[in-house]
Amino acid sequence: SSPPPHAPSTFSIHEYPSQDLLRLLAALLKQIADANDALPKSPASPSSPLPTQASWTSLERYSHTSIWPTLTTASRISLTTSPPSLSFHARNVPSITLESYLLRILKYCPTTNEVFVSLLVYFDRMAKLSRETTGRDFIIDNFNIHRLVIAGVTVASKFFSDVFYTNSRYAKVGGLPHAELNQLELHFLLLNDFRLMISPDEMQFY
User: Fold this and answer.
1) What is the Cα gyration radius of the chain?
2) Which of 72, 85, 99, 188 is 20 to 30 A from 149, alpha carbon to alpha carbon?
3) Smallest Cα–Cα separation from 170: which of 160, 192, 155, 159?
4) Calpha distance 202→9 (Å, rounded)
5) How far is Cα of residue 52 from the mean position of the Cα atoms in its chain?
6) Which pLDDT band, with edges at 50, 70 and 90, does 206 fall under?
7) Separation of alpha carbons 193 and 4, rounded Å
């Protein structure tokens, strides 16, 4: 949905205190993750499982969707080979709270508020692409939210900021091996079909 016309702007992304913004963001994402954790875990339907390896046959299965012609081949493969959110799934829920995790990123890899708000846009786009391509939901839960956040910050910092850090630094701050963050960064890009541009109106809406 789009914002209502002539809606008054009462929230300035640029001027809002970063730590307060991250607390709001953490609360929202934690609420989403907790709600998804509480959902019954039903097995995938045997009649339409997602393939675990790419093949032209598996790709053709989803070629009838309207979004399909607009996607890159790499993104088609990433979206249709196993549930996309599994790539970010951790074995255990991290002990650090999401709020502390976001504040840690801000402390050791300072960046703009736009980078953090952009996470909401990208997560929403990933969910829509997954649903429109395969009919499956992209589930954000407490097992994957931390990895989604650090991968998203890594991607968005490079896109929005003149100053950003090396992946080894983001990995260290995020508590991941360097090689794993590299893979998550690429997967994040693929699940967004490399579409990172966010208009000012869209950013303000989120």
Assistant:
1) 17
2) 72
3) 155
4) 12
5) 21
6) confident
7) 27
DSSP 37-58: HTS--PPPPTTSPPPSS--HHH
pLDDT tens-digit map of 150-168? 999 999 999 988 888 999 9
Tens of pLDDT, residues 76-91: 666 667 666 678 889 8
Locus of tokens 């954790």: 37
**Which amino acid, 52?**
T
- Let me know the angle formed at the C-alpha of 95 by 93 and 99, rounded to the nearest 5 degrees: 100
Q: What's the rounded Cα separation, in Å, for the pair 194 and 185?
A: 11
Long-range (24+ apart) CB contacts under 8 A made by 9-16 are 9/204, 11/204, 13/113, 13/114, 13/117, 13/203, 13/204, 14/112, 14/113, 14/114, 16/113
Choose from 37-51, 64-78, 86-100, 189-203 the range with maximum mean pLDDT: 86-100
Instruction: State which amino acid sits at residue 116.
Output: F
